[in-house]
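Quarterly update from the structural biology core.
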Amino acid sequence: MDQYSLQSNEAVIMKSEQAYHNGNSCELLMLTNLNLVSITSKGIFKKTYTTHRFPISQIKVINGQGQAIPRKSGNLDVYFMNEQQSFRFSNDDAFFSEKKAEKEAEIWAENINKLVAGEQVVSCNTDNNAIPGTEYIAETLKDTMDTFKGVFDLKNKPPQTVAGACTSCGASVSGIKGQAVRCQYCDSSQQL
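Predicted structure, tokenized:
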């Protein structure tokens, strides 16, 4: 495989082995403090590798915002001064891949745009070795807990109906606790 050698002032910020660059499978997609690097492969039995290096300094900036833009389905478009490059993130687990791919594209876009803006970016790696489906289970558990919280939340319980006697004439009055009611006999107003 064609290797990429880091420059003396270059450090890896993040990398992925689950990406495509312009439709070709990436053996490695890497973001450094200086470059976006894609090592792609072609062929089934006899693979050929190509290294593409795109300087971060060449990414367009419009209204102070770097032009690394995440799209749906895990796609990421990066607009350079003289060209546009498209990347797509994927996961081998088809059931959870779209959500994970979209999140990964967002993280890559955010970090690329921070670099373009001259902000500090901490090294991170979006590839994780979590058990497949854990994100889905965690989200389901969160939704379940939110439902229980909504059902048993005392702050959001339904209004309480109360009855009492009119302070002016003594007739029966009823309504929602804490609200003002008008007595139907003497027409006086009072709070329950």
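Residues 127-132 have pLDDT under 50 and may be disordered.
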